[in-house]
């Protein structure tokens, strides 16, 4: 069993990674001395696979357990879904000592965390990630929220979990596309600060789900969770700029998701495309070499993630969406760009600038145009 600490000034917590952890969920929660009432939040697919096991583990630990099933998909990551959680929290009498358990991927984790942050001004949340992406990234760090029609995650709060319980066994039922999405976040950790992880991914013959052996999977889970924990511990609320490095690939990635209404590409696929774009912008700004960008793209391709934009995407819509990013102030923002394998720089985003050392809209459109798929002839 691996136990990784997210060390915070207040509310530190553990990430527990172990085969069979789902059956130990109640035991883990009981050790935290949580309140009596627990509500499991999930979607129909995940709850059908693991809901009864999770609830049984909680009941065995003498918790009073209820559940809330939300529609599946990023397009349902809205305030309307949060209201469903509130309604059932009220119906089941959840109190300030009560706990929400997020059983699912990043969408369920974000929504459950936001509901926990806002119900009765804050109750406990325990994250039980069931996708690779959630295990290595979204379940850790306390970022919670929902989407606005004009942008991703514009509505949210920081609300740290009491515990993250990861059971690698549940990945056996994860669709291949969802596994690929998680690999995008894993590759991100290699690029932004873990050269050893990147080298390990680069040496692998294949990064497809069926080809990853238990030893490599263990490395992926522990290295990624440790990397996220270290960054969050040093910059919990994005005050020093360190945590912003975790947004590598996400600035353009989020804009792609929004421009395609969250139904064409999933989050990890959008992040992979965003990393390719960021890598090529970095080459244009002479922050790193074309050879380094090609190494990154080769690892992304090895994970069977696309290097191209979706066909028929509106590049103007992507650029427009960038201007409503959470981190834009007075019309200006920042991009996290690579300056080498394992290192990044924060570069100013000034949409109309003609300076050669900033990211501008013309440069973004130039790079994105080259990433459009070649039409069949």
TrEMBL record:
Cofactors required: Co(2+); Zn(2+); NAD(+)
EC number: 4.2.3.4
Reaction it catalyzes: 7-phospho-2-dehydro-3-deoxy-D-arabino-heptonate = 3-dehydroquinate + phosphate
Residue ranges annotated for the 3-dehydroquinate synthase N-terminal domain, each copy included: 68-180
Localization per Swiss-Prot or TrEMBL: Cytoplasm
Annotated Gene Ontology cellular component terms: cytoplasm
Primary site of residence: cytoplasm
Co-factor: note: Binds 1 divalent metal cation per subunit. Can use either Co(2+) or Zn(2+).
SUPFAM superfamilies xref list: Dehydroquinate synthase-like (SSF56796)
GO biological process: amino acid biosynthetic process; aromatic amino acid family biosynthetic process; chorismate biosynthetic process
Binding residues annotated for Zn(2+), in chain numbering: 185, 250, 267
Function: Catalyzes the conversion of 3-deoxy-D-arabino-heptulosonate 7-phosphate (DAHP) to dehydroquinate (DHQ).
Assigned protein family: Belongs to the sugar phosphate cyclases superfamily. Dehydroquinate synthase family.
Name this protein carries in UniProt: 3-dehydroquinate synthase
Organism whose genome encodes this protein: Chamaesiphon minutus (strain ATCC 27169 / PCC 6605)
Gene label: aroB
